[in-house]
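Q: A reviewer asked whether we had any structural model of the full assembly, not just the individual parts. We don't, so I'm hoping you can provide one. Inputs are below.
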Amino acid sequence: MSKPKIAIFSLTSCEGCSLAILELEDQLLDILGAVDIVNFREGMTERSWDIDIGFVDGAVSTPTDIEEVEHFRQSSKMLVAIGACACTGGINTLKNYQDETDCRRYVYGEKFEWFPTIPAQPLSNFVKVDAELPGCPMVKEEFLEFVKCALAGKQFRLPENAVCVECKKKDNLCLYEKGIICLGPVTRAGCAAICPSYGSKCEGCRGLVSDEALAAAGVNLREQYDVALEDVLADFRLFGAYQGSELP
Amino acid sequence: MLDRMITHSAFLELVDELAGKRRIIGPVARGERFFYEEVERAGALDLAFNYCVYGPRAFLFPPTETLFTFQQIEGRFAAEAVVEDRPTALVGVHPCDINAIRLLDRVFEKDHPDEHYLSRRRNTLIIGLDCPRPCTDGIFCSDMKTNEATEGFDVMLFPLGAVQEVGASGKGGGGDPQAGPSVRADEPPAAPSQYGVVFGTPTGREWLLYSHKSTVPTAADERALEQYHRSKAAAFRRAIKTPSEDLPALLDRSYDSLLWEATARRCYSCGSCNLSCPTCYCFNIYDELDMTLAAGERKREWDGCQLPKFAEVAGPHNFRAKAASRLRHRIYRKAKWVREQTDLPGCVGCARCDRACTAKISSVEIYNQLAEEA
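A: Here is a predicted structure for the entire assembly that you could use as a starting point for your response.
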């Protein structure tokens, strides 16, 4: 079997997830031995559009992004969204709650009219996405696992548990015991609970673990916790984990 | 009956000597709470701790471990088991956690002996520390009859010095035993001056006796132990209305209770209750390949019956797809099924599940509400 041809693309984002691939320093040579990277703006100048697996970081937030993501889809046998921006819209979705013109003027200055934008959205709102590797940034070990599964013909599955599982495995004191409302119970695990491990509450960058967990959050926020609902909704919105105007 | 007496400082010297031969795990303060951690010296232990956030389970049954490594050599499959046998001592284990380890021992040795667990366990010395009073609010170890341990330890320490000091210092662990739960990690009770020692195994006896640091108990020491037990019995109060031996029958009547659904609507299915439970032993097995795809490791990691996909099988079919059925399953396991299978308590009443619950679901409240319905 010839080596799979891989491309790494970026839309509206900091491209930190693309960089996370380059940060896989210990495994990078192994990866390059197993795959051919044929298109990667962050890492090389050569370009090819014959692609087996296309990884995309960034949200769709401009008309150009729409054209590009459609092109990526057409050129890639398998399309994978990497990072919060590509999977949920990520931090870009904060602009969706602000006046579009004000926001654009703030970002682009006096020539703002030259730069049309749309509400920031995940890839899956525009094209078929075959897999998602969420997180801000994406977890590079998860990327590696995805590549290994693809090479071995094994099914890749994201963790389907909440972040709490990883806190317990790491012997962390639960932030709820300190009266802090952390999004760990509603957020998909896989990050090794990195934020709570350093004392910060989980901000849900890996997206919701399930609708049932979100529903439980609604019940607990109204009935159990003494906390302002708007504050928690703001936390949910930070990485676009949940963008509804109220909790279910 | 006491086997020996030892002062707190002589005990610490013994543990320091032990540190040359075994890794020492014991309670250590981290912020306002205590955790079991590896220490270099006995002086780093906080034996006057109230409770540890998690039990010492992780040192016998780690969150993630490799069961075997495998590789393909010239097209042939080869595997090699990984079994840990590092000599270890768990120092300062309360009766609840000793009873929990007894259950793990029973589970991992029956039917298919689990060499990964059993090897660690065989190489672990358990030094128990009895609780003169409840360690905190919300516990129900006396309901489960697990606030005392009769076996499962190599050596058990009774903090007799602390009891004699009760009422004298009026601070922290001293004072009125009825006010017990006021003990906090940021206000640690004074370390007891001496311990009454009971041997649980020949290994424990040999370890304590070889250095001549302990003394023969006197009649006064035996009286102090009796006083200790009386004071302890008065300090622990029941939290669950139903006696633990009647909980299986209560649950038999409660399978179709509306409580499960009503309580589970708050449940995130985050698994915090399972993963902080000292008697939970479920695990998931998976393979990790290296980049050659021809070699890797078979691993296991903690799993929990409250996690949404725990009961998912091929199909995929999930035979406990709803949080309510998972909650009921956990409570049945803890108060009925595990006891029926092992003849040991499936729950040791440490209340770590209740404290860990991000939705503030209380197992004590569940038992008491079911008793009211029944």
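A: Points you may want to mention in the reply: Residues 244-284+303-373 of chain B form one domain. Chain B has twelve helices and 13 strands.
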